[in-house]
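Task card 7
Instruction: Convert sequence to structure tokens.
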Amino acid sequence: MAFTLTMPEIGETVTEGTIERWLKQPGDKVAKYEPIVEVDTDKVTVELPSPVSGTLKEILVQEGETVEIGAELAVIDEVAGETPADISLPAPDAEAPQRQEPTPATTVSSSSKSGSKKSRAGQGTRRATPRVRRLAEELGVDLSDVTGTGPGARIVEDDVRAAASGAESPRTTDDEVIPLTGIRRTIAQRMSASAFSAPVAWLAMEADVTSLVSLRQSQRDTFRDRHGVDLTYLPFMADAVSGALVEHPYLNASWGEDQILLKKRINLGIAVATDRGLLVPVIPDADKLTISELAKAMSDLGERARANKLQLRDVQNGSFTLDNTGAFGSLISKPIINLGQAAIITIEAITKQPRVVADDAIAVRSVVTICLSFDHRILDGNQAGEFLEDVKRRLEVFGSDTDIK
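Output:
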């Protein structure tokens, strides 16, 4: 009996996915739960496991193709009598507690009919994304007459526009063409949407973190021996931000045109730079975690993000974002708000600065700038300023008596 693997439904805002890499080829044996294909969505790249044991009979969508949710990806000749595993991805629940352990993510359908519907990529059209096909329909261009100049002869928008105008498809000579990855395209789309939809305001404050620097220096070796991860400044920042969000709920919100949604859970997104682009995995209920728990969660998410091992649940339902721009020496920055959130905060590089202390004395102190970009539709300057001042205060009280467990 033939078993058909389909593109999973993976979130309200996700409408399509791109086949990054087939892990099996036609004729290969595949075991139940064994990863069979990598799919890139606008959230993250995931490995879809096979719900049955059998032999991969046919690949319906080639690498690089983008198809909509529900499209058929491959046909597997399953082992007779075996019950397919139920490994469908649960729908995101913004209020329900999220498990820490990742689970396989896929949607499957079973079909033994020879006339089953193929994905749009397998209907005989040239290789093109849904967006390019829509453009072709709008301009009255027959894709079967278009020669693609994109990677793998994929038809890109410039090819369609050139065909519509009667010109030859654009080709380059001296320039190097870098095709967009799924993540880079998503970053471009979401950042543009955020920048052009929200009136963004910006604030920055300095915090004296001399005591925090001393605390970390005195505890970092013991902490590593006890917990198996490095003690960076980021979990302290996450602790300060999460605590402040509890007291300032409008920072943990989103805009809904005729309403403001205050989110009850503080799901802190942590920006992670990877070779594939910037990812923002999420720490659920960050305000309920200790410094050591935050440090371990950040280390785990960071490692899996860089190794391309994040699951969809790791990047869903973020309510506020923290970025460690100081990691590469930045002293001040103006970040773009993650789409659907009210604000984003950055921690810059900690530097030694002369400061006036008690009795007008001059002393060398460890100083850090914290920067906040916020949606002025949701927040006014006084609300944003009070929140940033609260974060500053919390950073400045870390010291030798802080219990980091």
